[in-house]
């Protein structure tokens, strides 16, 4: 069983739409959670950390559900520039073990 | 801002060559990582290091070795390059403790002919 699983998509949504991605993790000892964005042929870049109480950064909202072992990312009012692959990342308590999902592809259509 | 610098964006080498990929970070991070990324397979961890001269195998260490002689520098070595090592190589670093995300370099696109 994979440590982290994501729906690969692709998600094709119109501009202005709201889109949500989920990511499940298998290890209940997981401590830290992150969402990264990766553009085509570029490196992953940190989008946001995910905190237990949920957190928001502009149009982006991240949530954590420890009981069901999943994290989510909600993007409101999608922009063309949001088109990318979104990776969820889980970190175990050791601090240096990171597990990546394979990514969810998003295309925002004019 | 954290800066992780990889020595080359694009590299072309021949089968059997010894290849060195260099990575430097400027944030005094304890942890450094080497990944490769291939279409459909996501990021796969090759090696990581949690301190100078310390290294741990990741998921796919075969055919690779690493060196960390200084805290800021983590080198990946392909001992005898093969065509199946053609890939995008990504270096990352992170601080110690929890809630410390990884920061990535720009990546090196390595082609082995």
Task: Kindly describe this structure.
The complex is a heterodimer of chains A (110) and B (113). Chain A is globular. Chain A is mostly beta strands. In chain A, 0% of the residues lie in helices and 57% in strands. The model of chain A has no long low-confidence stretch (mean pLDDT 93). In chain A, the strands form two sheets. In chain A, strands 2, 4, 5, 9, 10 and 11 form a six-stranded mixed β-sheet that branches. Chain A contains no helices and eleven strands. Chain B is an all-beta fold and 113 residues long. In chain B, the strands form two sheets. In chain B, strands 2, 4, 5, 6, 9, 10 and 11 form a seven-stranded mixed β-sheet that branches. Chains A and B meet through strand 4, strand 5 and strand 9 of A and strand 5, strand 9 and strand 10 of B.
Tell me the span between the first and last alpha carbons of chain B. Answer: 36 Å
Q: How many helices of chain A does DSSP assign?
A: 0
> What's the main sheet of chain B like?
7 strands, mixed
Spans of chain A of at least 5 consecutive residues whose pLDDT stays below 50 are none
Please, how many helices of chain B?
Answer: 0
The radius of gyration over CA of chain A amounts to 13 Å
Secondary-structure class of chain B = mainly beta
Total strands of chain B: the figure is 11
State the end-to-end CA separation of chain A. 38 Å
- What's the total number of strands of chain A? 11
Strand content of chain A: over 45%
Low-confidence stretches of chain B: none
Q: How would you classify the helix and strand content of chain A by structural class?
A: mainly beta
The description of the largest β-sheet of chain A is: 6 strands, mixed
Which chains make the largest contact?
A-B, 21 and 26 residues
Shape label of chain A: globular
Shape of chain B: globular
Average residue-wise pLDDT of chain A:
93
Rg measurement of chain B, Å: 13 Å
